[in-house]
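dude i think i finally got it to work??
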Amino acid sequence: MRKQKLFSFINIMGLTIGITCCLMIFLFILNECSYDNFHSKGKDIYRVYRVAKINGEKTDIPYLSPSYSTALLNDYPEDILKAVRVMPDNDLIRYGNTAFNEQKIYLADSNFFQLFDFPLLQGNPATVLSQPSNIVLTASTAKKYFGTDDPIGKILKFNEKMEFRVAGIAKDVPLNSHLNFDFVVPISNWRNEDWFKNWNNNSLFVYVQLNPSISPASLTAKFPRFMDKYMGDIYKEIGFKMGLMIKPLRQIYFEEASPFDHIKHGNQKMVYLFMSIAVLILIIACINFMNLSTAKAADRSKEVGLRKVLGAERKQLMGQFIAESILYAALATLLAILLLQLLMPAYNRILGYELPAYWSNPWLYLCMLGIILVVGLLAGSYPAFLLSSFKPIESLKGKMKAGKQGAFFRKVLVIFQFGISVLLIVSITIIVSQLQYVKSRDLGFNKAQSMIVKLDNNSIWDKKTAFKIELQHNSQVESVSLMSGEPGGFHDFHSFETEANPNEKQLFNTEFADFEFVKTLDLHLIAGRDFSASFPTDSAEAVLINRTAAVKMGYTPEQAIGKWMKDAISDKNRRKIIGVVENYHYASLKEPIGPLVISNHEDRRLALIRLKPGNLATAINIVGKSYEHYAANYPFEFSFLDYKLNQLYQSEIKQETIFSIFSIIAIVIACLGLFGLTAFTALKRKKEIGVRKVLGSSNLNIVTLLSKDMLQPVLIGTLLAFPIGYYAMTKWLQQFAYKIDIVWWMFALAGFLAILIALITVGFQAIKAAVANPVENLRTE
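look at this
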């Protein structure tokens, strides 16, 4: 290391950067794969789902009505040991003058803390929710309301109507839990409400603990009879059936996120992607080590020859060289730990959350030990095999014959290195292009200056019409519509009878909205007319549909006007289609535009307020004052439609950011190796360069001579990466219903960047060698 400072630096830096990336990715994967593993009964806990076929695709819906839990326990007492209902809610919580609109409240059964291992700091898991008037808070929430005072026994006001006594304090919910709460309230307080007894009111999750002696498949086989028993008549009336199934607790986090499930979900593809990047980066770092070690084989040939003459066996020499590479790997791992500590705050910001403390995790130390051994063996095996194979006489005479083979092997490794680099550049280019396409695509509606205010409390709900009218009369407001779901948000699906197929019920997505819906979103009406106050019957007798719905019924938009359809779930009357709007993306671009029915029904969950261009801060303040006028006890909370739409692609945006960072790191490591190889080549050929210059070669000829050999494998690696990149990114784009075309310039750009980077790396050393004084190069020792 002292004799070869540059090569030692390049080896250690390459390995350090590679190992640091591996450790960062390992910590991310460790956290992702640990979700819900801390529950002692976890292997026997399952969540219950309804299963439907919507627009030809199977959809799993975890929201059930409260009645499912009781019926499952009653019907299968030998199969199901416990059942727990969990209903996510948001409510106003008040203690004295302190009040917050809390978003993470669970209404749950009394055995919630017996089924799930959320440790209680105060309170008994068996009794803490046994009284309807009890409430449990997390430790940080208790501190928010009570400071350093003992919270037990304190009274909290719930929506200004109910009062609850603090009976328990739970430890803050771990990061690796798909369930996340600040409060737990007994759901028994609502058992006499109409919605609680209605099998069609699907608003909560049901978790069951199975008897370990029964198989989930045997229980699932009984569910068709269960659904016929309790839902048969209802399904006959609405014209379609749904099934029932269960999924293991530990698989819930990696389920595909959907509008039907608002819990925290991970992305298993992202885990595999990161794992692949970690392996590729480590391989690139190992290739650097192997390349430089084999390139320097000639310098160590006399050492090997002398050791063999003095009695060293080949296995001893292989052990020595592998031990050297393990030493390099160990040193690089120590440096990687220091670098990891420095980079973790920035890494957490990129991830969007703070990874849990990892120094106490034994898996981290096993990972580091594994990296040292794998890197040591992988990076050191070929150099050890090559160096130990030298014949002592030829080595001592300096007549080695392994040069060409070693050079060929190094070129193969460079091809592999830059093939990976080009693959990463191609992937980044396509991912960025797709996300730009998603952000810039015409969605079919106007999302600008559109504010979303939820109607999520009784105060604003009861006065929603007055709230809307007041805003409409304000000069800062363009239009206001009350609706069941904003574009990109929740859209239910209902079963409809239609004039086109009166004997068959069809599923359509639904939007329940008022007469200003089309105006507020600035939708394009392609046939018929909009809802209008000039036609009082529109409230009960009219619907709008989109183009896809008309096509599904077998009509052109013009033919659909005047035809009737009837909502089999929530409407007694046939309604006439009065207008057809052009298709707009009411869901994510990952999904094709489905058939949509827009009806004037009383399901109102939010107000969409389109503000006029100008002073946005003033407009927000005006809406806030109006909200406070009608819901004085609740804090004014809002979001903007364009921000909500961007959230639909948050996972992909995060992939893009992290993928880009690690790809740049991989390219930097590859360039480090190429820099070292070029420096070594220039050093070994210095006498040849000196002779060529004396005989009249120009600096350009020398640069071309040195660059050609290095750039050839880079070019081959680039060409080999193209078909692999095309295949991989075609698969990635399949998750989007609307996607870009993969075009030639994306590959040309990746190839150009890779060759340019390599040319700059090689060119620096080549120019340095070309301008050197030939007299110095030809001087003998």
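The radius of gyration is 34 Å.
im so relieved honestly
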